[in-house]
Amino acid sequence: MTFLESLAFYPTLFYSLLRNRLSSVDWPWYNRIDETVILGALPFKSMINELIEKEKVGGVVCMTERHEVDHCWAAARKDWEAKGVSYYWLPVRDFFYTTETSNVHEAVKFISSFENSGKSVYVHCKAGRTRSTMIVLCYLMQKNNWHSPAAYTLIKSKRPRIVLYHQQWNTVEDYAKKYNTCTSLLVRSYTSYWNYLAENRSLRNCLSMPLAKDLLHPSAEEEKRKHKLKHLVPRPKSYFMDVKCGMCYKITTVFSHAQTVIVCVGCSTVLCRPRGGLAKLTEGCSFRKKQY
Question: In which pathway does it act (predicted)?
Fold first, then answer.
């Protein structure tokens, strides 16, 4: 545990708790992903009976480090095992860290052992966003012969606040190559996935929402929002700049534009004027460096 991690533990946990208290509907502590897996945040001791009785939890996969569960209020191994719940501990550092694919595979096998048992597995880290999501994603890939985008879409539809960083995505893709039986069978994967969607209307409807923005071809509304603010452009040294017009959205390429008045090539709008070694952009305009 680093000083930064220990410093960030309580504020980030308090943030999740506050959001949950303000609106448990918009920010639930946990979400059921399928008939076997529940993905959630660090459980409290007061939640154990609820999870066992309401959600039929028979197993727990804990992705936190020891210092994250070593509190009088946190549900630890001994608390779960005292209730007859199986416990699998896979400690991973918070934020941008990951683990070996062999460790992920052992956790996936633990979850798989509860299939068709009538019991569920509660998979958690501190906030139920990153470390635990990585495990659940790999489990869904293994179980359903899906590729990572299909599994991620399902989890995102159930628990929208999940996020995976570059390191976790690398682990997921390495896991797919090493353990997923349909790595080279993309059509088979998505056929299985769309068959699943056919039986789940709510999930199918959520796919009409964009999962990513097209940065090269933004909508007119996005363009208007993007160009509302005024900017002060640093003095250029020896590079060209693209200045986008807020009226016609055409690009004008200029050099050393902090020294001159720039006029749009499309509609003759004044794009920027020099001001004290800086270029004052006209409201609605934007700029970027040319990439070579």
Answer: Lipid metabolism; Phospholipid metabolism; phosphatidylglycerol biosynthesis; phosphatidylglycerol from CDP-diacylglycerol: step 2/2
pTM greater than 0.70 (yes/no): no
Reported as a single tens digit per residue, the pLDDT across 123-180 is 999 888 899 999 999 999 999 888 888 888 899 889 988 888 888 888 998 998 888 6
What is the distance between the alpha carbons of residues 146 and 84, in angstroms, rounded to a whole number? 32
Task: Kindly report the CATH number assigned to the domain that includes residue 93.
Answer: 3.90.190.10
Pairing relationship of beta strands 57-62 and 120-124 according to DSSP bridges? parallel
- Domain span including residue 65: 11-182
Q: Token digits for 273?
A: 């004027």
Residues with a catalytic annotation lie at 125
- Report DSSP letters for 241-266, one per residue: EEEE-TTT--EEEEESGGGS-EE-TT
The answer to whether position 168 is within a domain reads yes
In the chain, the amino acid numbered 11 is P
Are 269 and 155 found together in one domain?
A: no
DSSP letter string, 90-128: ----SSS----HHHHHHHHHHHHTTTTTT-EEEEE-SSS
Beta strands in the chain (DSSP E): 30-32, 37-40, 57-62, 86-89, 120-124, 232-233, 240-244, 251-255, 262-263, 270-275, 278-281, 286-289
3-state class of 60 per DSSP?
strand
